[in-house]
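Hey, I'm writing a tutorial for new members on how sequence and structure tokens pair up, and I'd like a real worked example in the thread rather than a made-up one. If someone can provide the structure for the chain below, I'll link this post from the tutorial.
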Amino acid sequence: MILWTASGPCRGQAPPPRVPDAIEAFWDVPYAETDHPRQRLDLLLPKNRSGDKPLPVIVAVHGGAWLGGNKRDVVGALVPLMASGKYAGASIGYRLSQDAIWPAQIHDCKAALRWLRGNAERYNLDPDRIGVIGFSAGGHLAAMLGTSGDVKELEGDLGRFTDRSSRVTCVVDFFGPTDFLTMGDHPGRIEHDADDSPESRLLGSAVKADEAKARQASPITFVTPDDAPFLIVHGTNDPLVPHPQSVEFRDALRKAGVPVALLTVEGGGHGGFRNPAIGRQVGDFFAAYLLGEKADFEDRTVPNVAP
């Protein structure tokens, strides 16, 4: 069973979690040629692969408002997929807003993707089939990876493999912010336009004080027809990231002709979803876009309860 939960603040590095014996784990692999403890990834490989061909990769990005959380928080979301023998997985860390302001975080994520491509032959990975899943702030970064594959100023120059692509094949975005300039238009637990909001701390200034930078940090800004297909999951009662963020993002992607489906969790908050249909939908989405299996995706609303 996959538990889809938002990550809480955690400044230190968590110890490696237990994983099934069927999975080989490489912990804290540096991807940026630096000593920064956040610029590390955890690589998970199935010991019993479903075939001899290179495996597609599912990359997970943790949440925590860009000021907390840990890559170990989302390893559990990868384990059932890796145990199938059909995928490799990676959970990536990135610098938090108290360490570096935007666009350092997306530079880190893209460097991690380039590292995976640069080491694809070593680990028998398929560099042309890389999906990404992110939660909350990680959903924001996953969405940025899905829309900014051709944006040079967000690429950065970290690591050894700067000649490799950082584009992704498909994206699962769990309740990630998508437009910083409209987050404050909806009531919630956070005053997003305040000087000390998570978004303002990420930018290094109040959101409305530097609208150009706020737009640069918004996945919706970079939507183009060649973006990766998206599955977006969001609860209607999310008190931290307003549900309309995902509705507006879905509409922008669809208008551009990008394959997208919005899975709305009726009564759902900021993660902690209890309906197993959500995990099945995520599994079907990755199987469709990374394994070539047939599946139809359309907008759905599901209750936040187990049937």
